[in-house]
Amino acid sequence: MNKAAALLHVICSFLLLMGCQQKGELSFPSNWVDLSHSYDSTTLYWPTSPVFKMDTVFEGQTDKGYYYSAYQFCTAEHGGTHMDAPVHFAEGKQEVDQVPLKTLTGEGVVVDLASIVNGNADYLITAKDLQQWFDLKKIDPSGKIILMHTGFGKFWPDAKKYLGTDMRGDEAVPQLHFPGLSEDGANWAVEKKVKSIGLDTPSIDYGQSTDFMAHRVLFAANIPAFENLANLDKLVDHQVWVVALPMKLKGGSGAPLRIIAAVHQ
């Protein structure tokens, strides 16, 4: 396919997705689902990371008689719903502000693995798990954004159930228990040339990981990861249109993420 034909294909796909009104105006979908958790005092972080803080600069009536509010916040890159940029575990790979928009937007699939995980907090999602699902649904994962529903999103923000521990500090890390992607699952994603990948747990690697191979495999191929996703249960087994926009931190290894998805009509 030459460049002109490829561009025409992209434009036609976009128009088909968005639909057109009788007057020819674009009609954007109204059924967006927010896949992001809000940031507040309950937001969960890695046990060794500082938690979210928000302070009031001013809130109330000014001396000129009008209402005004302003706040300041502090957060670690990796906490709440966020994106891991490839440089997080792969030297020289893309930083947050370098991840292309085409990697963060486009066709996606919400893969329902909750029945396979079955509440097992140490479950490793395998290449076989993923391939069997795509074979069953007759969907080609290539070039898509893959979002994995493990069922653990329902536990947010209960740290004990979601992370496996409500302890803080270095001593809490060995107590982490939640599902994640296996090394061969990460290799599968690379082989399929997926755009990006995410899930409803604190990390793309499972809680008991000590070598973080899923991170290392994916990020070496410049495939970013979305962690702590919300509301995937509302989109299970659906093909969706995804928009995932992290805070554009120059040189960042990760950033807070606002990610939304609309079901294909």
Q: Quote the CATH topology.
A: Glucose Oxidase, domain 1
| Total number of beta strands | 12
**Would you identify the CATH architecture?**
3-Layer(bba) Sandwich
Helix share, percent:
10-25%
Please identify the top-level CATH class: Alpha Beta
Strand content: 15-25%
Give a description of the structure:
This protein has 265 residues and is α/β, with parallel strands linked by helices. It has a single domain, classed as 3-Layer(bba) Sandwich (Glucose Oxidase, domain 1), CATH 3.50.30.50. It has 7 helices and 12 strands. The strands form 3 sheets. The chain has a 7-stranded mixed β-barrel with strand order 4-10-9-7-5-11-12. The chain has a two-stranded antiparallel ribbon with strand order 2-3. Helix 7 links the parallel strand 9 and strand 10. Helix 4 crosses helix 6.
